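cron nightly-structures :: item 1 of 1
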Amino acid sequence: MFATYLIGLREGLEATLVVSILVAFLVKSQRRDRLPQVWAGVGLAVALSVGFGSLIQYTSTSLLRTSESREFFEAVTSVAAVVFVTWMIFWMRKAARSIAGELRGKLTEALAVGSLAVAGMAFLAVVREGLETALIFYAAAESVAGGTGLNSLLALAGGIVTAVAIGFGLYRSALKINLSRFFTWTGALLILVAAGILKYGVHDFQEAGVLPGLNNQAFDISATLDPNAWYGALLAGMFNITAAPTVLELIAWVAYAVPVLVLFLRKPAKPAAPPAKPAVAPESATPAEPTEAAATPTGPAAEPAAPAGNASAERSQPAATAPSPRA
């Protein structure tokens, strides 16, 4: 259940931060009259997300008749969920610093258009998170025992409620948390959850007959990792780590988790500093073009120069007219 709680917490906090940015911008801009349109867009996005999740569940349980088709459907949704998780965590790490400014800019444009544009902007900002949550929740819940049952729904709802509480506390400045560190840790955990979802998807492909090796186990450590023990259930529920995976399941888990974790946790390289340009004196300060102050001195500081020049001339005049010693 921790996996579904983590999904609700992470996705819910992203959506809550988006909504809080929009609301804070409207409040500071003295445009509280547009708040109902924002909440209407958010409500519509939530309703569509719930409907999308229900459609996925209904398709799996009612529309698909054979077990092979259901396994294939669950495998496809698992792979799609892994793609969304991977894209989401890397996008959030890249856009975290600029998302607020982008949202404010889009909302400013929407305010100039009208109320429908404001509602549509809020809807688009939230619906992506909602659709991702529905898809990832279904794939994560199906990858563990119990499926999308009541406990999984309660865990997801608990994560969303926690996210809303954190977002409200940040909005009211009652909480101060390091969001960069928060998204880093939750992103790393979600990568492990996604690796378990991918492993489950590979197993479903094998059960559907798309991939071979269903009975080709990589190892069996059931004697050490008891699936009925609390730690075995915890690892299976969080990251789908089981005691007897198939060779393809193990390859998929390791091939995804290791490189993606390394890329995600690696600090982004700082852009190289541009080469220093040689210092060039301004054109007005070059010897060929003296500054105005040097060329045409003005003011009191320039006035004493004339008497000094005259005195020098007077002193030099007798020397020029003195008789030569040989005369």
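cron nightly-structures :: done
Residues 282-327 have pLDDT under 50 and may be disordered.
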